[in-house]
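Here is the promised in-class demo. Please do not try to memorize the tokens; focus on the logic of going from shape to residues.
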């Protein structure tokens, strides 16, 4: 079961920011109709996408990039749980809404 620490989550209209003690990231736009960008102060190594029930959809690997694009246009309109992992092993879980 996946859980979220909402105590450190900040929201704006189309951008959501989350942070741990050392890793911070911004996801925009959210909701998205396809392409969403993730920017982090630590290089991203892996992103895992799961449906709202927690079932695995796909994973993507990156070569220590601090700004990445995710193309969610092939997914149906729904809410997805995205796990972002840094090269140092830090993980942040983020909810992304795939809109029509």
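The designed amino acids, position by position:
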């Amino acid at each position: 079961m996946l859980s979220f620490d909402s105590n450190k989550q900040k929201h704006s209209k189309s951008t959501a920011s989350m942070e741990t003690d050392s890793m911070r990231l911004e996801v925009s736009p959210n909701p998205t109709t396809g392409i969403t960008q993730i920017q982090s102060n630590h290089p991203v190594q892996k992103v895992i996408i799961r449906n709202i029930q927690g079932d695995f959809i796909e994973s993507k690997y990156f070569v220590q990039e601090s700004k990445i694009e995710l193309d969610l246009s092939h997914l149906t309109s729904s809410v997805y749980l995205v796990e972002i992992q840094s090269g140092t092993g830090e993980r942040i879980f983020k909810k992304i809404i795939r809109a029509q």
